[in-house]
Specification:
The protein is α+β, with helices and mostly antiparallel strands. It has 6 helices and 6 strands; from the N terminus they run H-E-E-E-E-E-H-E-H-H-H-H. Keywords: Coiled coil, Membrane, Transmembrane, Transmembrane helix.
Length: about 300
Amino acid sequence: MIGSVFLTDFDQEADRGVLMHTVGKVLIWLVVLAAGAGTVLTAKLIQVRNSHTRKAEKLDADYARVSNQLGKAEAELNSLKAELARELLNWDRAPLQGDTSVIDPRQGRITVNLGRANGLKDKQWLYGFELNADGQPVYRGAFEIAQLGDNQTALVPTFRLRAEDIASLKSGNWRWRTLIPAAFPARHSDLQLQLVKNDELLVDRTANVTEQQKLLKEATAQLTRRREEIVGGPSLPKEDFRPTEEKAGLVAALQEVEEMRNQLLIDVDQLRQQLRQVSSELGKTQEENVSLVNRLPSAAKETASRQP
């Protein structure tokens, strides 16, 4: 019985040894696999660390660059804020906006749905900005309150209206301000004054052109009259008792005189030819007379007595 127990214990120890041997082999292989995996993971870890190191260095460089840009941007922002604050001093904080109706375009009289309830005062100046279809404001000038109501006010322009201004005044949604920078009204006044001067200059030039056209018309009429007096024309008198220069012009009169002169020259030439012919016949007659005288009997003696 003791032997059998001993054998049993021995078998169990043998089995345990085999088991431990097997477990040892398994653990060895697990260690080998873990070492291989550790090697791979270590390589991956080094690669990831290097990548993160490069990213960190890039982020540091970007941060330094962006920090400089951020400083410049903040300085520019502060400058713009200061400039905006200075500009806001010349503008009222909130513009008044209301429906505007053009009552009399020729006089520029308009009404706006604003009044005492909006803090307006009698004879106060309002600066109007018409809003286009795209919402962009267009400055239309300064208007004075002519009739102040609680919720509706009549306005008249403080500037001289021109034809273009009358055509541009349209009812709609206008934006009104009680205060704008002084440069805008001054610029608007300068432009209005320049336009008035240009209008006056245009009127003067137009009158001058009209006078020049009148003088040109008169000069053209005189030129036509003088041309007709020279070459003839339908406006000359046609009475028979008038001389040719008055009926047909100087050219026709000169042509008529030239024809008369040519005819006189022809007549004179004919008379010269006749005179030459008569002279020739007279010479022949004288020669015949002398010949006949010499044939007379007493001709020789008379001739001899006349000789010295």
